[in-house]
Amino acid sequence: MAGAGGGGCPAGGNDLQWCFSQVKGAVDEDVAEADIISTVEFNYSGDLLATGDKGGRVVIFQREQENKSRPHSRGEYNVYSTFQSHEPEFDYLKSLEIEEKINKIRWLPQQNAAHFLLSTNDKTIKLWKISERDKRAEGYNLKDEDGRLRDPFRITALRVPILKPMDLMVEASPRRIFANAHTYHINSISVNSDHETYLSADDLRINLWHLEITDRSFNIVDIKPVNMEELTEVITAAEFHPHQCNVFVYSSSKGTIRLCDMRSSALCDRHAKFFEEPEDPSSRSFFSEIISSISDVKFSHSGRYMMTRDYLSVKVWDLNMESRPVETHQVHEYLRSKLCSLYENDCIFDKFECCWSGSDSAIMTGSYNNFFRMFDRTTRRDVTLEASRENSKPRASLKPRKVCTGGKRKKDEISVDSLDFNKKILHTAWHPAENIIAVAATNNLYIFQDKVN
Amino acid sequence: MEVQKEAQRIMTLSVWKMYHSRMQRGGLRLHRSLQLSLVMRSARELYLSAKVEAHEPEVPLPPVRSPDPRLHQSREAEAGAEAAPPDGEPTSPEPMDTREAPRAEETPARCAPRPTKVSRKRRNSSLSDGGDVGLVPSKKARLEEEEEGASSEVPDRLQPPPAQAEGAFPNLARVLQRRFSGLLNCSPAAPPTAPPACEAKPACRPADSMLNVLVRAVVAF
């Protein structure tokens, strides 16, 4: 719909014009699997941007302070810290390898000079402390500057060590390891608004943890049937409410969302609210069941709405209305007739994420061919943009893209059959306060921001 | 016919995907397995309803389901131990490692003689060796009785699917096996008395079918 005529149709809220800012990652055509980005997350202030990859590595970018001599150029994101969060492991009991791929990163709100984040793979969650060291002590009594111990008998005078500046060093250390609580593969973690607890969800269970306690967790949702052969749905995502620390939601592979209140009972198997849209019989097809599976659920910043992503659409739900979503946005409806091919090449199983803008006025999600889609909820306009190295001149405006669904292909349009299904944008993040977005395209991270008027 | 072929192709593809998902790093993914089995179920329903539309009266076993176990074996041998990419070949859809030695994880209960072999034998025995039935050990006879019940399901599959309890997800193991027994000549789960029967019949294939292994893997996960 958007971008008709290829003009500069504004996207996002308030007539934004998106421009290229930066791209991180290797340029090689040959992409190493370990470098494929698997999660992207801004911290609460937006000054830090974390990415996790399939190789278990976390890279944190920090926004540079704005340059006073160039007030029109926003701060750039540069590498702040890189560390290996998870390593491949082997479960000897089940003879299974546990992948080191980082499934999710979630930041904790900052409480002191250090930064904390949770990162998880399929089985283990880790709390990392990222701290800066820019001073070091010099003038120890018992050891030399190079660390060699001094002979105590040779010490004739005592001195007080003094702190001297040094090159900034950013250290990441694992402070807590939350392991052995999940039989199935962890798909979500979510920090509670109380800043003391968090949840982790796998296919069948959700556990509640205290950040200080690693040897125990409470199981709050368990949908495992007594007889596994009767399994009909799995948990696909879960999140805590941004303000109400007793409320969380979880989505299922059947396209439903359950909202639970931890005050009502210890085990929240019975939902407080059940969100499901009745299926449209006219759109029922062979693959209906699997494309209705929800791949991501996110509360709005206000806490009034939540958004879900299934294979072909994003839906915005009002928490007060369970019967149907208040908005439905088609992401790539032209793929509906291609579902069989997408099943063959496994693309139908891709799990796309979605995110809200800081003001909740716009939502964003990814698609194929390195396209991503943005929907403005106030103006009801949507746009398709592309993350590509070809549009990577600094501050170059992004041109809206259009997919031709049939008939004559106009200039600048791309036909459905020409789409590259290996170039998929599954992970995106929106700065909490400003119009800056991070888009992960395989092994590259693109950062776009709006043109400062 | 096209619909039938397409449905069959999708079923084949799904089983192949399930087999491969077992091999990937991180092990079997529950969500993926569930989605694959949903597609398989839909494909099966489509296949059966298309078959019903195509052939209103009941028909005997379609050519796909070779009644001759020897012929079936040789076809499987051609399929080989390698994971055959789904090529729409209806007769050897599975990367079944038919020559694989019995695996440690096999339980005797899973050792299932093929219904066609059993039915052939039963037909033979009823026609020509009727007198021998009394000489067969009682356990074997019991197996045959139960197999008879199971085998009678074989032609039933051609009829419109009976009203199943679609509320609950059908027993995955049973559904997978039933669904594919027509294509693969795998029998439904044999009763526990199978082992002596297995040993008694030299033609009984102790090697578990890939399907059974897959199913067990999904169920046990």
Describe the structure.
The complex is a heterodimer of chains A (453) and B (221). Chain A is an all-beta fold and 453 residues long. Chain A is built from two helices and 32 strands. Chain A has helices at residues 288-291, 339-344; strands at residues 18-24, 37-42, 48-53, 57-63, 77-84, 89-91, 96-98, 104-107, 115-120, 125-138, 162-178, 188-191, 197-201, 205-210, 213-222, 235-240, 247-252, 257-261, 273-275, 296-299, 305-309, 313-318, 327-330, 354-356, 362-366, 371-376, 382-386, 402-404, 413-415, 427-430, 436-441, 444-450. In chain A, the strands form nine sheets. Chain A has a four-stranded antiparallel sheet with strand order 1-32-31-30, with no helix packed on it. A four-stranded antiparallel sheet of chain A has the order 2-3-4-5, with no helix packed on it. A four-stranded antiparallel sheet of chain A has the order 8-9-10-11, with no helix packed on it. The radius of gyration of chain A is 24 Å and the shape is globular. Chain B is mainly α. Chain B has a domain at 1-52. Chain B contains nine helices and no strands. Chain B has helices at 2-23, 30-54, 69-79, 115-127, 138-151, 153-156, 172-184, 194-200, 210-220. Chain B starts with a helix and ends with a helix. The chains are: A mainly beta (453), B mainly alpha (221). Chain A binds chain B through residues 88, 94, 96-99, 101, 122, 184-185, 203-204, 228-234, 236, 253, 286-287, 289-290, 293, 340, 343-344, 346, 349, and chain B through 10, 13, 17, 25-27, 29-32, 34-35, 38-39, 42-43, 46, 168-169, 171-174, 219-221. Chain B: Residues 56-171 are annotated as: Disordered. Chain B: Belongs to the IER family.
Q: Layout of helices and strands, plus pairs?
A:
The complex is a heterodimer of chains A (453) and B (221).
Chain A: E1 18-24, E2 37-42, E3 48-53, E4 57-63, E5 77-84, E6 89-91, E7 96-98, E8 104-107, E9 115-120, E10 125-138, E11 162-178, E12 188-191, E13 197-201, E14 205-210, E15 213-222, E16 235-240, E17 247-252, E18 257-261, E19 273-275, H1 288-291, E20 296-299, E21 305-309, E22 313-318, E23 327-330, H2 339-344, E24 354-356, E25 362-366, E26 371-376, E27 382-386, E28 402-404, E29 413-415, E30 427-430, E31 436-441, E32 444-450
Chain B: H1 2-23, H2 30-54, H3 69-79, H4 115-127, H5 138-151, H6 153-156, H7 172-184, H8 194-200, H9 210-220
Helix pairs in contact in B: 1-2, 1-9, 2-7, 4-5, 7-9
